[in-house]
Amino acid sequence: MTTIVVAMGEKNEIGFENQLLWHLPKDLKHFKDLTSGHPVIMGRKTYESIGKPLPNRTNIVVSRKNDWFEEGVLIVGSIKEAVKFAKKIDEEIFIIGGGKIYEQTMDIADRLEITRVKADLHADTYFPKIDEKTWKKTNEVFHEKDEKNQYDFCFQTYDKVID
């Protein structure tokens, strides 16, 4: 199973200047619970925004830069190559961003794990439109903002509709 994991605002905004738009500890825990023990695929800019390999996961970074190297990370030149390596490690793989990587993987994903943040924020990076003919929402859990989580948000699961 190939799952895309993303946190986005009400207009599908996901980032600004290579940073997330919010700090939601519950979402970070949800992300860790979903992805721990599995390969994660991300673009170079997303990796650089995180700053280090995510623990307890095989970190696969897609980069067109031939001279880029990072210890503890598998660097590949294409999504196809990243998925091939990830599937050798585990049948369950996670795509974690950023915007260009999401665009290139919507067709191959089986599931979307979305944190939908109840916010409308300035952004320069967006998640692709979710086609309701292709994706069916199968779960939704609401979380109210609190002293640690600055916005209301929902965890949503979408599964690909099989014709």
Essential attributes:
single chain; 163 residues; alpha/beta; Dihydrofolate Reductase, subunit A; 8-stranded mixed beta sheet; two-stranded antiparallel ribbon; 4 helices; 10 strands; 31% strand; globular
How are the secondary structure elements laid out?
Elements: E1 2-8, E2 13-15, H1 25-35, E3 40-43, H2 44-50, E4 59-62, E5 74-76, H3 79-89, E6 93-95, H4 99-105, E7 111-117, E8 125-126, E9 135-143, E10 153-160
Parallel strand pairs: 1-6, 1-7, 3-4, 3-6, 4-5
Antiparallel strand pairs: 2-8, 7-10, 9-10
Quaternary structure of the protein:
single chain
CATH topology assignment: Dihydrofolate Reductase, subunit A
CATH superfamily: Dihydrofolate Reductase, subunit A
Number of helices: 4
Q: Overall 3D geometry? A: globular
Which CATH first-tier class would you pick? Alpha Beta
The pLDDT mean sits at 95
Low-confidence stretches: none
Q: Beta-strand percentage?
A: 25-35%
Cα end-to-end separation: 17 Å
Spell the H/E element sequence. Answer: EEHEHEEHEHEEEE
Query: What is the rounded Rg?
Result: 15 Å
The helix content is 10-25%
Number of domains: 1
How would you describe the overall organization of this protein?
This protein is of the alpha/beta class and 163 residues long. It has one domain (2-160): Dihydrofolate Reductase, subunit A. The protein has helices at residues 25-35, 44-50, 79-89, 99-105; strands at 2-8, 13-15, 40-43, 59-62, 74-76, 93-95, 111-117, 125-126, 135-143, 153-160. The longest helix has 11 residues, at 25-35. The mean pLDDT is 95.
